[in-house]
Every structure is written in structure tokens, then in C-alpha cells.
Write a structure and sequence with these properties.
Layout (H helix, E strand, L loop, with lengths): L10 H18 L20 H16 L6 E5 L5 H10 L2 E6 L2 H13 L6 E5 L12 E6 L9 H11 E14 L9 H9 L10 H8 L2 E7 L1 H13 L31 E9 L2
The structure holds S-adenosylmethionine.
Length: about 280
Amino acid sequence: MSDTAQTLPVPEAVGKLYDRLTLTALRDGTFNPNIHIGFWDTPDSKAPLEEAVDRLTDVLIERLLVGGTDHVLDLGCGVGGPGLRVVERTGARLTGISISEEQVKTANRLAEEAGRADRAVFRRADAMELPFENGSFDAVMALESIIHMPDREQVLTEVARVLRPGGRLVLTDVFERAPRKTPRHPSIDKFCRNFMVTLADADGYVAMLHRAGLRLRGLLDITEHTMQRTFEELARPVEGADRPEALGQTNLPDLFHPSDMLGVDEFGCLLVAAVRP
Ligand SMILES: C[S@@+](CC[C@H](N)C(=O)[O-])C[C@H]1O[C@@H](n2cnc3c(N)ncnc32)[C@H](O)[C@@H]1O
């Protein structure tokens, strides 16, 4: 099945999926405050997965260029791990949105427990239609969340609207890398279908940002730093069990098994930075 033939994600259904993942993780004791892949600076880096996951958040933070007077929007905030790290490391104020009510509840609880509820607030909202005034934010981060949204250009147009002039956007996205194979590897289709993900058109990204009212600052293929190593780490048995919880997937083998993705190197990750002129 090609990407264009794939059924588009429906935000309500994505929200229900993440409600289920959150409740299952809390119940099973497999809860993780971050739901994204890791970033290793070099191929021989020995950093454990948990450290690499935080490192990817830090790679975004380095490009957000925010400080204590700034207000950041975390678009698709998960259960708040990355957003709380932004607050901790930069002093910025943060508003996080997720389409999952359970994630929002959990994120607000974590903010309270961390003593950061005065700087970080999480609420349920759909990124396709942001409930914020024009120019409300100094920066927007979207860590592995635009992958679930049915219309990237609409989301980016909303991002451009809520950013002030000069405001920054940093996001990660997934795409199908060259050389593309026909037919596409079935594990990619399974991943996209089960997690309601569509793949970005990397070649068209710059033009899409432009149409949305944003200008490119940088677009990097970070696959070599992220994807395969994450799947290898997740697939490696730990005390007789694998550890999908590190991606927040919990024990849901019906959705995904990391070993399905081993060697599937045409499944890539982009790091995109843009500015609202
Ligand atoms: C893979 S998780 C990433 C979470 C978080 N950024 C992190 O790295 O831990 C994807 C996130 O995107 C959110 N999301 C997906 N579609 C959305 C939409 N239409 N509006 C708002 N949030 C959405 C999900 O609810 C979830 O929080």
C-alpha cells in the first residue's frame, strides 16, 4: 500500500489510542514520560536508550532558542516529559496540547509533582485547529506528533498563525527514504496503520512550509542518529523480556514489535527547523 493510499489518521481515534496506551502503561508500571525515539551523537556512542531519548529533546531545545521570558507551545505533548524538560533547561513557560485526555491529565499531574505547574500547563486540543490567538507563542515544538495529523499543511498553517513574527518551529517527522523499495516493506505499512501515522514527503517539505507561511532554517535527515539504533535497543531482551515501554508502547504486541523494524532502513526521521517571518 502506498502512503497516499493509506487511510488518514482521525484525531479522535488517535486520542483514544493514546488514552489506551497511557492507562495501560500506568496500570502495568511501564509508564515512561517520553514517547519518542532516541538520538545518538555518534554511531559508536554507548549512551543507553533512556539517555538518547532525552538527547533528542535536547537537540530540539538547542534549536528552539528560548529563554526565561519565552512562551513555548508543545504541539502533541504526550505525557509531558519533553515539555517539562524544556521548562527545566530553559526557564521558558510552556503550554502543551495533546488530543488525548488521559495524557493531558497525566502531564498536569507530573508538572504538579515536579513543582513546575506554575510554568507548564497541558490541555486537550486538536493541532488542526489551535485554540490560541494569533502570535501567542515565541516557539513551537512538535516532537514526533505531526506524524499522526491528517493534514500537515493545515497544522503548519496553524503553527504559523500562533507564532509571533520571528518565532521558531522545530519538529521531527518520519518519511520514506531513498532508495524506496516497491513494494514498501510491510512493517512500515503495519506501523503506519497501527499507529495512525502518515509518512512525510521529504522532497516537498520546504515548499509546504512556505505555503504555510514559514521559512526553512534547517532540514536534516537524522535517521542514522535515531531509527535503527532505537529499534535495536528496544528489541534487545532485558532480563528475558523486551522493553517496548521505553517508547511508551507498553505491552501491546498487537500494535508493534520493535524487531519488525530491524534492517528496515528506508523508514527515516527528519529534523525540521523553521521561522515565521
Ligand atoms: C508519539 S507521541 C509524542 C509525544 C511527545 N511529543 C513525546 O515526544 O513524548 C504523539 C503525540 O501527538 C499527539 N497528537 C496526535 N495527533 C494530534 C492532534 N491532532 N492534535 C493534538 N495532538 C495530537 C498525541 O496525542 C501524542 O501526544
